[in-house]
Fold:
Amino acid sequence: MGRLENRVAIVTGSGRGIGKEIARLLAEEGASVLINDIDGEVAEAAAEELRKLNVKVAVAAGIPDGDVTNELSCRGMVDKAKKELGGLHILVNNAGITRDKVIHKMDYQMWKSVLNVNLKGVFLMTKAVCEHFKSQRYGKIVNLSSIAALGGNIGQVNYAASKAAVISLTKSTAIELAPYNVCVNTIAPGIIDTRLTREMPEEKFESFSRAIPMGLGTPYQVARVVLGLCSEDFDYVTGQLIVVGGGLII
Amino acid sequence: MLMNLYGIVISAVEEWKLLGSGSGRFDGKTVIITNSAGSIGLATARLLHEENANVVMNDERIDVVRSLEGKLGSRALTTDFDLSKAEAATLLAQKTLDRFKSIDILVCNEGRSDGKAIADITADDWDRVMEKNLTEILHALQGVYRSFRSKQHGTVVLVSSLAARSGCGNMVGYSSSMGGVLGIMKTVSKEWSRWGVTCSAVCPGPIAEGDQGLSHSQRGQFAQTQVELANRNVTAEQVAKVILFLASEEGRPINGQAINLDYGLYIYSF
Structure:
């Protein structure tokens, strides 16, 4: 029997990369999963893989259904999980984008789109689940931040601001929801081998990779920590930040 | 509250009039302070002015900033640009250069509070807090960028909050935005160090007076402690003094750092 039998999870941005791996690990432990992604095709493909694990899977993808920056869509995802998967216990806020440019060249749209997805998306999804979690007096929320929040990163003032804000959002939400037995934590992945990090200039990617004492991270290594936070093992842990960075920041 | 603020501003003006024009740590330096009608902004402006800086105070609270016009000496300039617009930040920098010929220090003091639980804050509330507390800083930075880069020298001090470090119930928008301020600070310190620009932040705990920070009744959300020292509220002037240090030559080795100013309140949250 898996550690998450009879649990239902929403994982945002789970069509590919770290989100997809998180969805897979949760499903392997018996959780039913709602796959969300702005890209409908990758979401369907990820869902198809999960169905092979004999768990219930739902999909909310594309615009508007899969848009975490749209409040109605966020509520729709929660309703869909409850209706099609029989409840909701876990929310993993993983959806994130980058629009890199040094600050003096960053236009408002680049700034706004990153803050909308990476920060407002976390807020809207959290708001959408919190009444349900409070009423059932149980819930696990895991938010994905980044080491860019802790150390900054050249060309990522928007991304670093959004991810640093997620850390504070996590703490405030944890304070508000702790009396209802809802745990809210955040992880800050280091340099992980995903499509997003591969978009970096190769030279920069290589130099970052060389700087990590334990080498480049994998989505699986990150997803394992998220799985732990969603499990009973972490029922008394809330408001915390865990850096999953292979020793990059100590 | 506006009248109360007006009173603080006027008393500060009267105090300035009594000051002489001796030398200070900021002789010939020009500072732009955003959201300067707030208690921390006002105290920072006053202390920098005392130390001979040229002080540009921007604030949209038009009644307050207009009341200062004509009452300050030649080393002060008040403006009310809406920094949610990038063009306004460019104009603020230009107006500063027209008047004082240089920009040396930028202090961003944004701090709109939402005061709502996560279940109650609307998407529009959220956007307003982020526009005020984060986007305005982005624009202010973009406004001074050319000047700092051409001089190969500059200092940025951002006012964040203890709420960024510890979180705060019923203030999820505010605390998130203050966390975002730290993300901006760290990135700017990395991007602009090569041009001799430092960027750091202060994280004040509850403020004893004025319109910024957290009320005394909210401090219980941070920590329960009977220790007298940790129960003190920091004053706007104490915060301003640390901002001055960070902006001074003595503070120059400090870059990319956030300093808590809370009498140790944060450590009692452990």
Remarks:
- Residues 56 and 77 of chain B are 5 Å apart (CA to CA).
- The beta strands of chain B are 30-34, 54-58, 76-79, 105-108, 154-159, 197-204, 258-261.
- Chain B has one domain: 2-263.
